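Postdoc handover notes: sequence design on the structure in folder B. Input tokens:
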């Protein structure tokens, strides 16, 4: 998800610590591919719907799906006994057969424009050279963290599937001194961008997950270059689906037992243009 920073900006952003308290974010490994996931209780994990569906829309089997903590090369698998995708949209819930070591509180309220966030996932990374990003093969499977900011002030009219504002948050990948959509420029140290394998990874504010990375569009080079737009599905739009499926209590109750991670982050803003 995050590249080693060859400049002040990097694909997924400047590499930040992805250890505690992010070590409960994990991988969702299926027979058809892999993504990321965020535990929201001792046994329930949120991920993107397309992570647990095949190209034809078939749900992957519980016997072929695992939630994995650690890394791809060294980690612990937790078997899955339920996979419940939303009937129409790109969000899903999976249930482990045994208890997980930790989880995160949810923010099921709408998050304001310009909220700075942490994005955490296991997707591929890339390298930056002479103004161009190149993705790195075989780089899925390491937990990485970057930062960006919600940018709901622009509507670029690309990819109508991501234009329903009540369902998604957008964020843009600024760099090389360019503020592509005039939303204030990159965060200090460089913007982050979710890539392949980060789908289902958490977008956090104050340690609570409020969205899941589900895609990207725009830009050049297959959506890896500066000017690319990242998309996170809003948990606030799916609160009934999440609560009905899991029985997870109100967000404040969950946050209280989520190992105190809410104190980690503070809300920040992008730097104003000068």
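Designed sequence:
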């Amino acid at each position: 998800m995050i590249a080693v920073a060859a400049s002040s900006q990097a694909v997924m952003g400047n590499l930040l610590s992805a250890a505690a308290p992010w070590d409960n974010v994990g991988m969702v490994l299926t027979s058809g591919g892999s993504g990321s996931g965020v535990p929201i209780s001792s046994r329930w994990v949120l991920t993107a719907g397309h992570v647990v569906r095949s190209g034809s829309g078939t749900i992957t089997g519980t016997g072929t799906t695992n939630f994995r903590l650690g890394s791809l090369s060294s980690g612990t698998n937790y078997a899955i006994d339920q996979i419940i995708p939303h009937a129409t949209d790109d969000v899903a819930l999976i249930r482990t057969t045994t208890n997980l070591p930790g989880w995160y509180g949810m923010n099921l309220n709408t998050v304001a424009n310009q909220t700075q966030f942490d994005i955490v996932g296991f997707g591929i990374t890339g390298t930056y050279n002479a103004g161009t990003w190149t993705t790195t093969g075989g780089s899925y499977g390491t937990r990485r963290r970057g930062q960006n900011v919600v940018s709901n002030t622009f509507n670029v009219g690309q990819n109508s599937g991501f234009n329903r504002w009540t369902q998604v948050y957008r964020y843009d990948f600024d760099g090389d001194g360019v503020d592509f959509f005039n939303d204030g420029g990159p965060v200090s140290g460089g913007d982050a961008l979710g890539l392949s394998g980060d789908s289902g990874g958490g977008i956090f504010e104050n340690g609570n997950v409020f969205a899941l990375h589900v895609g990207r569009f725009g830009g050049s080079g297959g959506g890896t270059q500066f000017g690319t737009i990242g998309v996170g599905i809003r948990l606030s739009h799916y609160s009934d689906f999440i609560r009905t499926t899991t029985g997870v209590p109100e967000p404040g109750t969950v946050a209280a037992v989520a190992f105190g991670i809410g104190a980690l982050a503070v809300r920040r803003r992008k730097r104003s243009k000068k």
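Context for whoever picks this up: Helices lie at 239-246, 251-256. Don't rerun without checking with the PI first.
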